[in-house]
Design a protein that fits this description.
52% strand, 4-stranded antiparallel sheet
Amino acid sequence: VQLQASGGGVVQPGGSLRLSCTTSGFNFDYYTIGWFRQAPGREREGVSCITNRDGTIYHRDSVKGRFAISSDSAKSTVYLQMDNLTPEDTGVYYCAADSAGWGTWRLNYNPDYWGRGTLVTVSS
């Protein structure tokens, strides 16, 4: 199983980034795939995910209206479009996949699979 995250970087407040998570080795069309993040000195939190078997989408409250998640089955890739970024969005973003649903992200449970993180820094 592999989850390869990319797209992090440094952006000014109000800017945008798009993260990608390219996967292999499990049933992409069945799994829930998304991102957790961890900021320095703070606990990990579930950010956003999409359940590919039924299209259900979850976003934590603090990113609703600013982040959008989408899935490309042909490429086994999930994308997280992040707009109107704030310094509070700074952290390492980890792509993850779980056979359960969005509850894993909302309740901050450990997913089945983790990818390496990609750093997002929002700073002026």
